Amino acid sequence: MTKDIRMKWVYRLSLSLLLFLCLFLLMKLYPLYEPLWSAIKGIILPFFLAALITYLLHPVVEFVHEKGLPRFVAILSIYILFFGGIGFAAVKGFPYFIVQMKQLLVNVPVLAEDYKELLYQVDRGTSALPYSVHSKIENYIVKMENNAQDVLTNAIFSLRKIVDYFFVIIVVPFLVFYFLNDFEKLKKALWYLTPRKYRYEGKHLIKDIDTSLGGYIRGQLFVGAILGAAAMIALWIVGMPYPILLGLVIAITDIIPYFGPILGAIPVVLIALTISWKMVWITVGIMLVLQFIEGNILGPFIVGKNLHIHPVFIIFSLLLGGELAGVPGMILAVPIFSVIKVIIIHIREHRLQSSSD
């Protein structure tokens, strides 16, 4: 019996190592298949975004339909409210976004000079420390100048890429409408495409994934949107520059557990440092108030159930996601880990049931 257990652990460890080796090779070979992946990504991305939005809106459509509104009218009303709200916000906010982005791009060298002066003050104030400390500070100054230039270049490149995704932006609303309207037909098609012996198991798996993940994703997105809007208003009231840009950063990073509030606060505090220490304390106070509201009001009531994942595993998945794909990887890390967890539990229960039979 002991030998069988050891063999099982050896098999699991070997399988895990093989999986990581395959992932490592895929990362190293990425330059070879990058053109193919770019073409595939351009085709898949609209369907992925449409499927995600459909997944988020479908429970709302069903809720409205159950209240007595015809299904087509419920779909049309939710569809118009969702995309109409996004379109209205884009039309009203995009000009300000462009203006603030241009201002930020112009002021990046000025901000870099301000930080250089701060670092020089630190250097002068630590003259009694060893030479190695001063050398590190000087190296940091040089890196900061290079990073400022990189930020400028990447920002311009990102703005240009928005034009490349214009077709995706146009196609997604049409796909979402068709997905919502034909949701039951798509479910039946998926049911018949699934091999007969896996249908009921697959149905329970998808149901458990939705139970574990659906409320979390919808809640986190809603809370992030509320905090981002509140941050924009608060920063605009106190006179912080670039409130729309900073509010968007806070809304996006708030989706990341634990590290999100810190990542969102860093650019706010860094820009406040170039204004005054009074502005630093004001912005820190705003960030603390927003996080208190999220942690004690919005989080428990909107996000609701947690994912039942130990914090250690959440932190591990965030670090892994950040290492592989930066901030987008950290945003996707916890949902992906939750799906993997549910799949593993189902595989284990299926094996136990098979062995008992």
From TrEMBL:
The chain crosses the membrane at residues 9-30, 36-57, 69-91, 162-180, 221-238, 244-273, 280-302, 314-344. GO terms for cellular component: membrane. Belongs to the autoinducer-2 exporter (AI-2E) (TC 2.A.86) family. It is a multi-pass membrane protein. Pfam families: AI-2E_transport. The keyword Cell membrane does not apply. Coiled coil: none annotated. Keywords: Membrane, Transmembrane, Transmembrane helix. GO terms for biological process: transmembrane transport. It comes from Fictibacillus phosphorivorans. This is AI-2E family transporter. It is found in: Membrane. The lineage of its organism: Bacteria, Bacillati, Bacillota, Bacilli, Bacillales. Its main location: membrane. Signal peptide: none annotated. PANTHER family: TRANSMEMBRANE PROTEIN, TRANSPORT PROTEIN YRRI-RELATED.
